[in-house]
């Protein structure tokens, strides 16, 4: 079995396990009568959508006529190539549509999925050799978990921070890689990462009303 497939399966199992732990004890979902099995239906739909998106955007950014063959496109275990950023974007869109259609608490479910995804991504990145980035992702998981359970922020903000950190981290990796081995840096993935980063920042500024602290900060600074 290909190493990338082993990493993908291992990350998926970690994601599902952590999601199960958090969903089982979440009082908000219990109070709103959101069935656990429906959450996991959404999880599997989101995962498959993410895998399709990861493959599709990899093919778009690394086009080869061989990918026009449906078997070559679908059998990524034999013809490797997945873009993690594409998987994240497709997962975000799919989960949003799923929760809105079911009228579930969107922000809460996004936070739970983001928390479950962080250790899974940390494992995958670590197995690919980026141990420092992996440790940072794992540390972020524990920080955001504490914020989530202490209700330090509104529902949805934990997911936005995770997306912000994910996009920023991969952008840093791309820049470092560029200086080590100069290649075309402004590709599809980098553009998507920049859009995710800007979107997450704008969401947090607006949703958490961060701008109201700015005048206070300036007045304190002048004093």
- Overall number of strands: 0
| Estimated radius of gyration | 19 Å
Secondary structure: helix percent: over 70%
Distance between the termini: 64 Å
Q: How are helices and strands ordered from N to C?
A: HHHHHHHHHH
Report the biggest beta sheet as strand number plus sense, adding barrel if it closes. Answer: none
Shape: globular
Mean pLDDT: 85
Structural class: mainly alpha
Strand content range: under 5%
Uncertain stretches of 5 or more adjacent residues: 213-223
> How many individual helices?
10
Topology (SSEs and partners):
Elements: H1 3-24, H2 27-31, H3 36-61, H4 70-74, H5 84-102, H6 106-127, H7 131-149, H8 157-180, H9 188-207, H10 213-222
Polypeptide structure, described:
By secondary structure, the protein is mainly α. The protein is 77% helix and 0% strand. It has ten helices and no strands. The chain has helices spanning 3-24, 27-31, 36-61, 70-74, 84-102, 106-127, 131-149, 157-180, 188-207, 213-222. Helix 6 packs parallel to helix 8 (157-180) and helix 8 runs antiparallel to helix 9 (188-207). The radius of gyration is 19 Å and the shape is globular. The model is unreliable at 213-223 (pLDDT under 50).
Essential attributes:
223 residues, mainly alpha
Short description:
With 223 residues, the chain is an all-alpha fold. It contains ten helices and no strands. The protein is globular and about 50 Å long.
């Amino acid at each position: 079995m290909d190493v990338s497939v082993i990493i993908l399966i291992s990350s998926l199992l970690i994601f599902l396990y952590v999601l199960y732990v958090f969903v089982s004890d979440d009082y908000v979902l219990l109070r709103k009568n959101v069935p656990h099995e429906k959450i996991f239906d959404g999880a599997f739909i989101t995962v498959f959508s993410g895998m399709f998106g990861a493959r599709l955007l990899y093919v778009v950014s690394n086009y080869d006529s061989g990918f026009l063959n449906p078997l070559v496109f679908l059998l990524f275990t034999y013809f490797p190539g997945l873009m993690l950023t594409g998987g994240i974007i497709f997962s975000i869109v799919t989960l949003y549509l799923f929760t809105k259609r079911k009228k579930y608490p969107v922000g809460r479910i996004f936070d739970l999925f983001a928390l479950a995804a962080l250790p899974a991504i940390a494992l995958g990145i670590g197995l690919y050799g980026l141990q420092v980035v992996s440790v940072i992702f794992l540390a972020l998981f524990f920080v955001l978990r504490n914020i989530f359970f202490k209700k330090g922020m509104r529902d949805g903000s934990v997911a936005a921070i995770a997306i912000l950190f994910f996009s920023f981290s991969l952008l840093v990796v791309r820049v470092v890689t560029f200086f080590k081995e100069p290649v075309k840096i402004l590709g599809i993935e980098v553009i998507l990462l920049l859009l995710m980063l800007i979107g997450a920042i704008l969401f947090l500024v607006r949703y958490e009303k961060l701008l109201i602290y700015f005048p206070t900060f300036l007045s304190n600074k002048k004093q």
